Amino acid sequence: xxxxxxxxxxxxxxxxxxxxxxxxxxxxxxxxxxxxxxxxxxxxxxxxxxxxxxxxxxxxxxxxxxxxxxxxxxxxxxxxxxxxxxxxxxxxxxxxxxxxxxxxxxxxxxxxxxxxxxxxxxxxxxxxxxxxxxxxxxxxxxxxxxxxxxxxxxxxxxxxxxxxxxxxxxxxxxxxxxxxxxxxxxxxxxxxxxxxxxxxxxxxxxxxxxxxxxxxxxxxxxxxxxxxxxxxxxxxxxxxxxxxxxxxxxxxxxxxxxxxxxxxxxxxxxxxxxxxxxxxxxxxxxxxxxxxxxxxxxxxxxxxxxxxxxxxxxxxxxxxxxxxxxxxxxxxxxxxxxxxxxxxxxxxxxxxxxxxxxxxxxxxxxxxxxxxxxxxxxxxxxxxxxxxxxxxxxxxxxxxxxxxxxxxxxxxxxxxxxxxxxxxxxxxxxxxxxxxxxxxxxxxxxxxxxxxxxxxxxxxxxxxxxxxx
Length: 469
Prior knowledge:
Strand content: under 5%
């Protein structure tokens, strides 16, 4: 007897909305219960597979979608691996220690607050890690600030803003690569698009931090902590200005738009040469640091946590989560619910580009706050939800990728119960009193809406500038 073929069903608008809410609810509940992020996304993938089964989606179609989605993500996986290698090599090679040393020498009470913002922005831009900046340059800045009459919460706010500047803008950042990867926007096109909202916001924030810093600049500074850090660094590393060259290479790679995989690979190789020549690290140890992260015991408890980090192993959790999220996204895509959600629900509410960008921002904030600062989930789900809508409205995907970072990436440190604030509070021994001082994070979305309303920094599907209407 011939087996009856099951016909694939087209989801209704109501089914699409309910399915989407069920997936989001599962992610929100599990993350807030403290479940592992990777396993939480795995549950989302299982629910998505059940939805696909209800709609009679052929497994061959789902499998084909999965292969395409994962294939699209492979370049991002490789970039994340190279970033882990680079951080471990830079620690061993004295690049990050040199950045810290010369940064600390510039400290003065009058410029401490804006300098905290600038130096942490540079550190995160060079390393691509907000947490690394918080625990290295930021820790040094906050330690010095604790001996002045400048409110420590203000300095922490400046540090956090600087750290998340690089987390958003650095070609080494995992969220930058994630947003670029899931929206399929070339990495440097994505970064270039973000300059329209990020740079103006950074300038405004820097002015605000400068004014606030001058208000409290009359006190004396006990530089003993800064001196202890510098003495420890010079005792364990050959500190000289040449050690900063590998970090400058990252900016040159970005400036000359060298393909990211090629540029980062060259930077890794050159950084290894600098480490061997400048610090005398042998190739075998250096390969170990690239794989497993740098490790050193200086005998100074204040400094060791700043240096012991990096390596491919530090990125494996992100890679597995990213892979699982890609699987979830692939299954969701095969069901067609996102297409229905965009065409039959969102497109009826969103009438122009200003509303589109504003709704994307609000949506990402909601997901981030509900998932305890889950940047990865917010970026991936936001991309899947709005991608077709941007296409329908003939708006470039690099506007979508930028808007996701303006909200999903930057809102992580202002979610009081989120992972990022918990990390910040554990490093600095503070509460959430720094959040009101995160001015840069609050200003960026304002420029996102201004760009949408004026047409400045907005492009159509053919990458032509959009004029305000």
